[in-house]
Design brief:
Layout: E1 15-22, H1 28-39, E2 44-51, H2 55-67, E3 75-79, H3 82-88, H4 97-104, H5 109-114, E4 116-117, E5 120-121, E6 124-130, E7 132-136, H6 147-156, E8 163-164, H7 171-183, E9 189-190, E10 193-194, H8 198-211, H9 225-233, E11 239-242, H10 246-253, H11 255-259, E12 261-264, E13 279-286, H12 293-300, H13 330-339
Helix pairs in contact: 7-8
C-alpha cells in the first residue's frame, strides 16, 4: 500500500500528516495510513480525512481549503485531471528530483503523464482504471463494436434493452463527450484554444441518438456512475459503460447477474477505428502549504522496489464502488457548455 519510503525520513519530532481523499468504504485507505505510520518509526502519523464520494464535491472542498492556504492538507488524493490544475495554481508542490525518480521508475506511461505538468512531476499515481463496455452474456452474445450498433442492438432486445451511461449535468457527461470526440479523431481544446470539427457534431449526434432512443434509461439525465451500476446490477439493463468497480459490486450485490457479466473495449464511433476511452485514477499530491513537506513526500512516494517487468501503478488502496475518472480542463467544460 503506501511506500517503503514511509520510514525513510529522519527529521526530528513526530509530525501529523493529514491525508485528504474520498471516503473509501472497504477500509483500504484506513489500513494503509496505519501501516505507513507504523513503518515511519515514529517520524509521523497519517490521519485519514474523508472527502465526499462525489468527485465534484471533492474538488470543491480541496480547492476552497488550498485557495485559503490551508496548511492542514499534507497529502491530497486528486482525480487525475486535477493535477495540472492544482500545479498551475501552486496548490501542490513539485516533487523533488529524488522522489520524482522513484515515482517515475516502472510506472505506466499513461498514469505518469497525468501526474506530470510542464515537464515536472507533481504527483504520484496511486491507481489507474478506464471505462469498459459491460454486457449481459445471457442477453447478448456478440455486442456491437460501435455506439450506433449498440443502440440498435439494445432497441431490438425483448427485455432489459437499455444502455447505462452517465448523463447527469456533471463531469461524467463531459468525460463521455470528450471520449466520443477523441474516438472520432477530434479534440476539444489545444493550446487553450477550442478546436471545433466534425468530430464535435458526430459526438453530440451519438449522445442525442441514444438519449432519444428506446435504449436510453428513463433516468439517464440524472444518472451518474453509481446509478448506472445499480440499474445494471438489478437486471434492468443489457449494457453499461462504466469503470471496473461495478464488477466486484455485482458479485456481492447480485451473484446471478455477476455470472453473466462480459466486457469489451469501450464502444467505437466509427467501424474499424479504435475508441479512445477515458483514463481514470487517483494521484497523490503534496499540499502547497504543508508544514511537513519532507515527511509528506516520503509518505506519498511509491518505492522503486519491483523489477522492470512489473509495471506500476498497482492500487495502493483498492478502488471500491467509487472510482475516479479523467475529465477535460475547465476551459474544455466551458466549450462543451457552449454547445448545449
Amino acid at each position: 500500500m503506501w511506500a517503503r519510503a514511509c520510514g525513510d525520513d529522519n527529521s526530528g519530532g513526530r509530525a501529523t500528516l493529514n491525508l485528504w481523499v474520498f471516503n473509501e468504504p472497504s477500509g483500504s485507505f484506513t489500513d494503509a495510513a496505519k501501516r505507513c505510520s507504523d513503518a515511519s518509526g515514529g517520524q509521523y502519523k497519517i490521519v485519514y480525512n474523508k472527502l465526499s464520494n462525489d468527485a465534484d464535491q471533492q474538488r470543491q472542498s480541496l480547492v476552497r481549503r488550498l485557495a485559503a492556504k490551508d496548511s492542514s492538507i499534507d497529502i491530497a488524493g486528486m482525480d487525475v485531471v486535477w493535477t495540472a490544475e492544482f500545479a498551475e495554481a501552486k496548490f501542490i508542490k513539485p516533487w523533488p528530483a529524488n522522489f520524482a525518480r522513484e515515482v517515475s521508475q516502472g510506472t505506466l506511461a499513461g498514469p505518469l503523464k497525468t501526474a506530470t505538468y510542464q515537464g515536472r512531476v507533481w504527483a504520484a499515481p496511486a491507481n489507474t482504471n478506464t471505462q469498459l463496455l459491460w454486457y449481459r452474456k445471457d442477453l447478448v452474445k456478440n455486442p456491437a463494436e460501435t455506439w450506433d450498433g449498440l443502440i440498435k442492438q439494445a432497441e431490438a432486445l425483448p427485455k432489459a434493452g437499455t444502455i447505462e451511461i452517465q448523463g447527469a449535468q456533471y463531469e461524467g457527461t463531459t468525460v463521455w463527450f470528450n471520449s466520443l470526440v477523441a474516438s472520432a479523431g477530434g479534440s476539444i481544446i489545444r493550446n487553450n484554444e477550442p478546436t471545433p470539427s466534425a468530430a464535435w457534431s458526430r459526438a453530440a449526434g451519438i449522445m442525442r441518438n441514444l438519449g432519444t432512443s428506446k435504449a436510453a434509461d428513463p433516468s439517464m439525465s440524472a444518472q451518474k456512475e453509481d446509478q448506472n451500476r445499480q440499474a445494471f446490477e438489478s437486471g434492468n439493463a443489457a449494457f453499461q459503460v462504466n469503470y471496473p468497480f461495478i464488477y466486484p459490486s455485482a458479485k456481492e450485490g447480485n451473484p446471478e447477474v455477476f455470472k453473466q457479466i462480459g466486457w469489451k473495449r469501450y464502444p467505437a464511433v466509427d467501424p474499424g477505428k479504435l475508441s479512445r476511452p477515458p483514463i481514470g485514477g487517483i494521484n497523490w499530491g503534496v499540499g502547497g502549504y504543508t508544514k511537513h513537506p519532507t515527511q509528506a513526500f516520503a509518505a506519498a512516494a511509491w518505492p522503486a522496489q519491483r523489477g522492470p517487468t512489473s509495471a506500476r501503478p498497482r492500487p495502493r488502496a483498492v478502488c471500491p464502488r467509487r472510482c475516479r475518472r479523467s475529465t477535460p480542463t475547465r476551459s474544455s467544460r466551458r466549450t462543451i457548455r457552449s454547445l448545449t
